[in-house]
């Protein structure tokens, strides 16, 4: 079941096509990575979901029905460009933003108290936003994004401004929210985060979708039957039969490291048979493409 479906979304600005006939299916309960180079159209799509702007044509379906104005209460959006008022006190502003999402004053205060205690930032309540560092302000922005328990959360570069410790803190909270039933749309340039968090991805390039599916299925599609082999007690180099393409061949401190591509249909057993006479097999593993590898390859082939 999909929580959100985009159907043939097109959006132009002053003659520039930001999105061209874009269709996406975002499964309920997924962590969905929305990927693409700068200017690909990701932010335009996110703004349409949040009804900040409207598509020229096409439709957004949320929970089986066309997107409605009141759906904003079931969505949480953390934009890349943050929007806290610098002169307001943290607690006053957090209360205001929580109540804009439909919470009563008592509900907002109780939920904010929970999150402030969880992040150990109770002492920030009466500080002005301008007194906070960028990372501190980011924590407040994260809290007001999730405080109303939205079923759909959209994070645009959520780790911007965080040090490694707080990046891990927010990453874990995103995982917790997903485990507790929230669907996450996750837009970022940090491919290592996509690899760790996302189970579905879509790649947009030059306003069009060029790739979509589960991370597992996409990685399977991009497998190239390539293996790394590490041999011990061997000569500096070996020569393999024409059945194998040696992509890398390096020797260091008695170890020979090979990166070998097998022909279609060949199994790693044949590779083991081929290299074992030349030394002891210390390590053998398949080279599985990373999301970053797939990202680069797909963008390069669709330019």
Structure description:
The chain is of the alpha/beta class and 303 residues long. The chain has two domains: 2-220, P-loop containing nucleotide triphosphate hydrolases (Rossmann fold, 3-Layer(aba) Sandwich); 224-287, Alpha-Beta Plaits, CATH 3.30.70. The protein is built from nine helices and 14 strands. The chain has helices at 42-49, 90-100, 105-118, 134-146, 164-179, 191-197, 215-221, 268-275, 291-302, and strands at 2-13, 16-27, 31-35, 57-62, 65-66, 75-78, 152-156, 183-187, 200-205, 208-214, 226-232, 244-252, 255-262, 280-286. A six-stranded mixed beta sheet has the order 6-7-8-3-9-10, sandwiched between helices. A four-stranded antiparallel beta sheet has the order 2-1-4-5, covered by helices on one side. The chain has a four-stranded antiparallel beta sheet with strand order 12-13-11-14, with helices on one face. Helix 2 crosses helix 3 (105-118). It starts with a strand and ends with a helix.
Provide tags for this entry.
single chain; 303 residues; alpha/beta; Rossmann fold; Alpha-Beta Plaits; 2 domains; six-stranded mixed β-sheet; four-stranded antiparallel β-sheet; 9 helices
Query: Hey, roughly how much beta strand do the residues contain?
Result: 25-35%
Strand order of the largest sheet: 6-7-8-3-9-10
DSSP helical segment count:
9
The average pLDDT is: 90
The count of domains is 2
Q: What is the fold named in CATH at topology level of the largest domain? A: Rossmann fold
* Biggest sheet details: 6 strands, mixed
Helix content: 25-40%
Can you identify the CATH class of the largest domain? Alpha Beta
DSSP summary, beta strand count: 14
Secondary-structure element order, as H and E? Answer: EEEHEEEHHHEHEHEEHEEEHEH
